[in-house]
Amino acid sequence: MKTITFFKQFILCFTLGFMTLALSAQSIITIDNNPNSTTTYTTIQDALDNASNNDIIYVQPSNSTYGNAIISKPITIIGRSHSETAKISTLGTISVRSSNVELKGLSTSTISYSLTGAPVAPPFVGFRLYECEVNSSVSLGTFNVPADDVELSGNILRGGVIVDDTASNVEISNNILLSSLTTQHTLTLTVRNNIFRGTSSISITNNDPADGTLILFDNMFTINWNNNGFVNLNNGPFNLTNNLTYNFSFASLDFQSNASGSFTETGSLSNTNPLFTNVDDSISQSFAGTSSAYDSAFRPEDDLTLQAGSPALTTGTGGEQIGLFNSGFNFEKLGNPRGLPSLDITNYDGAVPKNGNINVTVTSKAY
């Protein structure tokens, strides 16, 4: 860190940090709805309507939402974070109806596939959701609208996740899921290395048993409930491999299926403390706490990496970790997009003479 002349350093950081992204896009659009902003667009839909295919839209942090989005062209939308204090980029509902859509570092309410807007030929291929927080539901595929090659990774998913029977080649990995998972299509669905966090129970549903077995491997299932809890496996069948269950109240958390369902289970670490580096089961909004409204920013000390003695470090498939951080995956709990630099101005001159330089201290970090 050092004191530098702001304008020269900003140009340098911008050029070095985003050059590779710029090479693959027609243009980069920044939207900002903060007071005194001079950007051309202050809502996400205005920016989308005026963007070209494969453009990148950067969403500045703001105390207010940038509105709802109907995405009808290949596009990348990147925010600063979903939970970092005073640096949150917020959208409303997002309707995806194009191939090659990528979303990073955003807080949003719902994500779904939609037929709203000008026709876009299906199938919708190549949807990526990274380092986002979705406060309601994520619906993949919809009536007669196939979705193919879908990846959800590094997110906090507060509402239900629904995989429709029109969705194929879906991977749900390295996420925190705070609600239910429901699927109508299992043949090409991968569910691995997630943490399912509930309060008294967790619900997973396979609604099309004739389609095949829902396989869940290398996941953690945790609750904090002062009675015995269950991971409810509805319908089925299910194949559970190398998963971990734990109830922070020291009661039990076990798998159970309803009368019409079935499951097989191998390699489980049942009722086993994962030994997270730092959680506190006495604080309700800690990851190990009792609150259903877990907030990743509420207790900054929370650290879901595993201690050296954790039984989950090498007991996943192929000797990998169970949970979020397998194969060195960098889970960013505040939703800072991985691989992109962020800039913070930490100090600057209060007054300078006319035509003088402003000396600014800038720190940068790539997540």
The whole-angstrom Rg is 22 Å
- Widest β-sheet, arrangement of strands: 2-3-5-7-10-13-16-19-22-25-28
Beta-strand content estimate: 35-45%
Distance between the termini: 17 Å
Low-confidence stretches: 1-25, 348-352
What portion of residues is helical? under 10%
E-strand count: 32
For the residues shown, what is the average pLDDT? 87
- What class would the helix/strand composition place it in? mainly beta
The geometry reads as globular
Query: How many H/I helices?
Result: 2
Largest sheet: 11 strands, parallel
How does this model look, in words?
The protein is mainly beta and 367 residues long. It is 7% helix and 38% strand. The chain is built from 2 helices and 32 strands. It has helices spanning 6-23, 44-50; strands at 3-5, 28-31, 55-59, 69-71, 75-79, 93-96, 101-104, 107-108, 110-113, 124-130, 133-134, 138-140, 147-153, 156-157, 161-163, 167-173, 176-177, 181-183, 189-192, 195-197, 201-206, 214-217, 220-223, 229-235, 238-241, 244-247, 253-257, 263-266, 276-278, 303-306, 341-348, 359-366. Strands 2-3-5-7-10-13-16-19-22-25-28 form an 11-stranded parallel sheet, covered by helices on one side. The chain has a 7-stranded parallel sheet with strand order 8-11-14-17-20-23-26, with no helix packed on it. Helix 2 (44-50) links the parallel strand 2 (28-31) and strand 3. The longest helix is centred in the N-terminal third of the chain and has 18 residues, at 6-23. It is globular and about 65 Å long. It starts with a strand and ends with a strand. The model is unreliable at 1-25 and 348-352 (pLDDT under 50).
